[in-house]
Design a protein that fits this description.
single chain; 278 residues; mainly alpha; 2 domains; two-stranded antiparallel ribbon; 14 helices; 2 strands; elongated
């Protein structure tokens, strides 16, 4: 929150009380003068609980409590890069049939950090923090939808997707690695965007029940915005100018893997029921 907005709600409450007091003094003035005794009496009346300003004080207090709670929540939402990535498949978290839940987010964040590399991840975090500071200048609370739509965040989203697509070029070994990470507390660390080494120390594996089907559903949702069919010609030209590769060249190999999985995946009971209704 910017310094200009620190205590804004308290100032608003004080301002109303001062104005009310000034208006009361004007009403009691005789020849432009107000006696000391009258000033003290008005002060006592306006300070009474309950009193003429009690309702406003109650509303102001509730507003302050709510804003404080929201600001405290915002302080905990500092994994901006992780939030950006999760935004691409957040609808799956609301769909029990996807098999993807919030319990999978912590290992996903770890995998994402390793794929990006510490230096790039931290750099993107700093840029996101600057956007958050700018957007929360007015209210002290981050307007998240504005955050996701901010040009800098849109660019960072693309960087995340491109980095993941590059890391998944060698799909089978990377898929196996991702499944291990998503089902455990990671025991590897990144040495670059596509290189990982084992961490020293004992493994603390915690099975999360995240399988290949869950991973492919996640990737399908995560990269849906950069499918050629989802982008117009202008966006494709701009993408090539930024990366030196077209959308098809950058993401095509991953889309092939996703399509092949969809074609060869086992037929489940819900899929048979859906086919029967069609």
């Amino acid at each position: 929150m910017g310094s200009a907005m620190m205590g804004s709600h308290c100032r608003s409450t004080a301002s109303l009380a001062i104005k009310a007091f000034a208006e009361a003094l004007e009403e009691q003035a005789v020849g432009g003068r107000v006696s000391v005794s009258t000033i003290r009496r008005l002060s006592e009346v306006l300070s009474q609980v309950p009193g003429p300003l009690a309702a406003h004080y109650a509303i102001a207090e509730q507003t302050c409590v709510s804003n404080f709670a929201m600001q405290q929540m915002d302080l905990q939402r500092t994994n901006y890069v992780g939030r950006i990535a999760v935004k691409t498949f957040s609808h799956l978290l609301l769909d029990p049939s996807s098999g993807i839940g919030r319990k999978h987010l912590t290992p996903f964040f770890s995998a994402l950090r390793m794929i990006l590399g510490e230096e790039i991840h931290d750099s993107l975090q700093e840029k996101c923090a600057a956007v958050v500071a700018q957007l929360s200048e007015t209210s002290g609370v981050t307007p998240w939808e504005e955050f996701y739509a901010h040009p800098e965040v849109v660019r960072i989203t693309e960087i995340v997707l491109v980095s993941m697509a590059k890391a998944l070029r060698r799909f089978e070994p990377r898929k196996d690695w991702l499944l291990i990470v998503m089902n455990s507390n990671p025991t590897s660390q990144s040495t670059g965007s596509t290189a990982f080494i084992a961490r020293t120390g004992p493994s603390s594996k915690t099975v999360q029940g995240f399988n290949e089907a869950n991973l492919m559903v996640l990737l399908d949702a995560m990269f849906s915005s950069v499918r050629p069919s989802a982008m117009n010609d202008e966006a494709k030209v701009a993408f090539r100018a930024r990366w030196g590769l077209g959308v098809e060249e950058m993401f095509g190999p991953l889309f092939v893997e996703i399509t092949m999985w969809k074609y060869h995946r086992p037929v489940s009971a819900p899929m048979l029921q859906e086919a029967a209704r069609a």
